[in-house]
Amino acid sequence: MSTPPVVLASQSPRRRELLTLIGITHVVDPADVDETVRGEERPDAYVERLAREKAAVVAARHAGAVVIAADTTVVQDGEILGKPGDVREAVEMLSRLSGHTHEVFTGIAVAAGGRVVSAVERVEVTFRDLTLAEISAYVATGEPMDKAGAYGIQGWGATIVERIHGDYFSVMGLGLRRLVALLEQAGVGYAYGRGVTGD
Asked: Residue 123: what pLDDT?
């Protein structure tokens, strides 16, 4: 059984780690797409559209490869919180999330054999109450600056999360259970210890 090349359409270190965790050897080729929210676009539709666009763009550059793409966003009170633009915005985001439950939406897309399949995972995350000093100290680590909602659950941000309801790996940026299901839906198998498999 052949092993098709796998391309991750993301430069996220977390997504690389997760693919490596389940034995999927891959190369990275990030997609450059416009991430502007379109009008009244719902968060689930937004992340799924971006994941599909990223997968399609990169698939066009890698004939015969399996392309994996994802996009994650944080939603509080119906508002999409992207990556903070600066320290002040990171502090504001974390202050809003402090002591409350928010939603994390992750869209995943797999491009293989000339088609793209996709799905969305929704997870509820609750923060403990944070003081301004705690928020400022966390922001000073630099960890929040390249992450939607200004936190990373797999790093120092783990200390501010009280509980989650849903798939932990989706909050990290790539739900592994959903990914394997999408690979199979796209006609690409997943074999324990061998990664992806083709015909």
From this structure: 98
- 165, with CB counted inside 10 A (0-12, 13-18, 19+), is exposed
DSSP 143: G
Residue of 35, 148, 152, 172 lying closest to 82 (CA atoms): 148
> What residue ranges do the domains of the chain occupy?
6-197
Q: How many CB atoms lie within 10 A of CB 100?
A: 12
| C-alpha 37, offset from chain centre | 16
- Pairwise CA distance, residues 58 & 13, whole Å: 18
Cβ atoms of residues 6 and 27 within 8 Å: yes
In terms of DSSP H, where are the helices of the chain?
A: 13-21, 43-59, 87-97, 132-140, 168-172, 176-185
Closest C-alpha among 170, 175, 197 to residue 186: 197
Give pLDDT tens digits for 157-199: 999 999 999 999 999 999 999 999 999 999 998 999 888 987 5
| Contact by Cβ (8 Å): 190, 184 | yes
Side-chain half-sphere of 31: how many Cα atoms within 13 Å? Answer: 25
Fold assignment, 6-197:
Maf protein (3.90.950)
With contact defined as beta carbons under 8 Å apart, do 96 and 34 qualify? Answer: no
Show the low-confidence residues of the chain (pLDDT under 50). Answer: none
Active-site amino acid positions = 71
Say if residues 81 and 125 touch (Cβ distance below 8 Å). Answer: no
C-alpha to C-alpha distance for 170 and 41, rounded to whole angstroms: 21
